[in-house]
Specification:
There is one protein chain. By secondary structure, the chain is mainly alpha-helical. It has one domain: Arp2/3 complex 21 kDa subunit ARPC3 (Orthogonal Bundle), CATH 1.10.1760.20. Helix content is 70%, strand content 3%. The chain has 7 helices and 2 strands; from the N terminus they run αββαααααα. It has a two-stranded antiparallel ribbon with strand order 1-2.
Length: 177
């Protein structure tokens, strides 16, 4: 059952990549992936959430077109969006540990909000410098293409993550840790 849950969130993340809207100036796509990524951490916990996102990244690396805009292979990881993909994995234990107590019970609304914001922060903290490095941009240019255009969507996806996660996480608390 636990492995099935991890695979379910792997699929959910893949589905979140299907609708990809490239944003100017760099064409880094806006997707629903981060909604799935954050819900994975909130609902599955640190280990299963991380496993789910590792599966997602590995499946994409070995050739399945599961990344935004159908991207696949090691080129996607080494390309301009690779840092965001790494952030999907790295944020899992942080988000889960803020949102839940050691016994697996869910903390309150404030903790859930902080957890989601921390997760988004980690994804951007890895994604934006990676974007700068790969494209040989100054950091200011990477912020223009890899952070600022995403902030409105991030607010919406973060709010949805908190609302859905707050409802779904108590149901999964017995199985998540």
């Amino acid at each position: 059952m636990r492995a099935l849950l991890a695979l379910l969130f792997t699929c959910f993340t893949s589905l979140g990549a299907v609708i990809a809207v490239p944003l100017p100036p760099d064409g880094v796509p806006m997707t629903l992936q981060t909604l799935a990524v954050l819900l994975s951490a909130l609902c599955l916990g640190p280990r299963l959430g991380m496993a789910s996102m590792l599966i997602y990244v590995v499946v994409g690396m070995i050739g399945a077109g599961v990344f935004a805009e159908g991207e696949k292979g090691i080129e996607a990881i080494l390309g301009q969006t690779g840092g965001y993909l790494v952030g999907f994995v790295v944020c899992q234990p942080v988000v889960a540990s803020i949102a839940r107590r050691r016994d697996g019970s869910v903390r309150g609304w404030l903790a859930m909000i902080v957890a989601v914001l921390a997760g988004e922060g980690i994804i951007f903290a890895l994604g934006v410098p990676w974007l700068a490095l790969v494209n040989e941009y100054p950091m200011s240019r990477a912020l223009e293409g890899g952070l600022y255009p995403f902030l409105p969507g991030t607010v919406v996806k973060s709010a949805l993550s908190v609302l859905i996660g707050r409802m779904a996480a108590p149901l999964s608390s017995r199985h998540a840790w």
